[in-house]
């Protein structure tokens, strides 16, 4: 297997122009839907893979202040995401803690509780039952890069997703110890990262979840990842994980959970942040804040982690295509692959999740029938029968929830 390391220089659109540019036939070109270009024209094959971020390897950097870096699909191939390949999404500055800061870490639980708590990490370890779970964390803006018209924000493609093995305690158990009042309806989460301005009175992000999601047994306060300390960039020494919902609900460097008697209104809970229109809107329009609602579960989605896009295979020789799929609060019930631009689909083998909210692995064998340019398209279906669309599912002002199908280029030569 070898990668063709060049980019298509396309001026026109559609299969014919592409075929001319590459000097390769497109055997299923007649099925390429009108308006869709071959994916190789839209995707840089040779990505600049960064090696400069401490503890990370091969991520592609979208911005460095704040630091935002995503995982290329082929580095998501691991069954459990490793520390070095876990994406980073910061809204503020990366904190810089001393050993003393870490040793004296406190987590405050206050607001609508009978007994406010002020806990050390040892208190969490000693006073509550430990849980270890594989949990996916996906940024609400994953896929934004493919929104038309473009939406402002980090231009994530497919790599703002991780699924690591987290160890910690159930938020429900901690809230039970504090004793929820009847007035408790929502949580508000706070972390120790500084605001981009450096102003200590400003908070970069403080989101929350309805109390039912907070009490869900998979919502945890984690102090370890993959059996080790959490990587600093991913929330060391303590983070919340509310899997299946936008990653922004999973506060890193967690210091406080404020139990609210109303929907939390911290920075990035209101206005246009992590909110989508209550009804379908025309692409590109402005939507008033009062017509927006808070995103809850993330939609069904999948990624092809092997082979790498633009790999070459011999015609007629089968090879394995594999990846992962997930569906927010739901499970994935079917995974299908197409090599003819969506004209026909073949069912892949799909594993059950190791626990609820873990991503699900899938694989199948694919054979490219003759020489030429092909694409592999991947489509997951959730247990409510909802499928990933071929193109964007519905435009929204900030470009959230774009769960379009992942497509990779393949050469049969
Ligand atoms: N304290 C804090 N927590 C945070 C953020 C942040 O900027 N500060 N970013 C959130 C967002 S938007 C996402 S998508 C996830 C990303 O988690 P990761 O950086 O560990 O991959 O963390 C969330 N938790
Ligand atoms: Mo995010």
UniProtKB/TrEMBL annotation:
Gene3D superfamilies: 2.60.40.650, Oxidoreductase, molybdopterin-binding domain (3.90.420.10). SUPFAM superfamilies: E set domains, Oxidoreductase molybdopterin-binding domain. Its cofactor is Mo-molybdopterin. Residues 101-266 form the Oxidoreductase molybdopterin-binding domain. Residues 293-410 form the Moybdenum cofactor oxidoreductase dimerisation domain. InterPro entries: Ig_E-set, MoCF_OxRdtse_dimer, Mopterin_OxRdtase_euk, OxRdtase_Mopterin-bd_dom, OxRdtase_Mopterin-bd_sf, TAT_signal. It holds the Pfam family Oxidored_molyb. Transmembrane segments: none annotated. Keywords: Metal-binding, Molybdenum, Oxidoreductase. This is Sulfite oxidase. It comes from Hyphococcus lacteus.
């Amino acid at each position: 297997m070898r990668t063709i390391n060049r980019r298509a220089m396309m001026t026109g659109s559609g299969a014919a122009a592409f075929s001319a540019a590459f000097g390769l036939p497109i055997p299923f070109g007649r099925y390429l839907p009108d308006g869709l270009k071959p994916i190789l024209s839209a995707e840089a094959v040779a990505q600049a893979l960064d090696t400069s971020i401490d503890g990370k390897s091969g991520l592609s950097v979208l911005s460095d202040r704040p630091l935002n870096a995503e995982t290329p699909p082929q580095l998501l191939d691991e069954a459990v995401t490793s520390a070095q390949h876990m994406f980073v999404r910061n809204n503020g500055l990366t904190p810089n803690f001393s050993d003393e800061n870490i040793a004296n870490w406190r987590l405050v639980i206050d607001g609508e509780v009978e007994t406010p708590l002020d806990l050390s990490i040892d208190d969490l370890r000693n006073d509550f039952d430990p849980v270890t779970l594989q949990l996916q964390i996906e940024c609400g803006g994953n896929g934004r890069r493919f929104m038309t018209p473009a939406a402002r924000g980090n231009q994530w493609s497919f790599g703002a997703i991780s699924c690591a093995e987290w160890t910690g305690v159930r938020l429900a158990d901690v809230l039970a110890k504090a004793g929820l009042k009847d007035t408790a309806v929502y949580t508000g989460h706070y972390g120790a990262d500084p605001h981009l301005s450096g102003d200590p009175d400003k908070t970069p992000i403080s989101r929350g979840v309805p109390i039912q999601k907070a009490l869900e047994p998979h919502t945890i306060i984690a102090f370890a990842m993959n059996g080790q300390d959490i990587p600093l960039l991913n929330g060391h020494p303590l983070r919340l994980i509310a899997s299946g919902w936008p990653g922004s609900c999973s506060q890193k460097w967690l210091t406080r959970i404020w139990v609210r008697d109303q929907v939390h209104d911290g920075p990035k809970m209101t206005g246009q942040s992590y909110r989508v229109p209550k009804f379908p809107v025309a692409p590109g329009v402005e939507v008033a804040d009062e017509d927006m609602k808070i995103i809850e579960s993330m939609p069904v989605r999948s990624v092809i982690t092997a082979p790498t896009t633009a790999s070459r295979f011999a015609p007629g020789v089968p090879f394995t295509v594999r990846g992962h799929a997930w569906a927010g609060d739901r499970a994935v019930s079917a995974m299908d692959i197409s090599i003819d631009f969506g004209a026909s689909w073949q069912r892949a083998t799909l594993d059950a999740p190791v626990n609820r909210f873990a991503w699900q692995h899938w694989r199948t064998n694919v054979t490219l029938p003759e020489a030429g340019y092909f694409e592999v398209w991947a489509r997951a279906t959730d247990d409510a029968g909802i499928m990933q669309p071929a193109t964007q599912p519905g435009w929204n002002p900030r470009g959230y929830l774009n769960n379009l199908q992942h497509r990779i280029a393949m050469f049969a030569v």
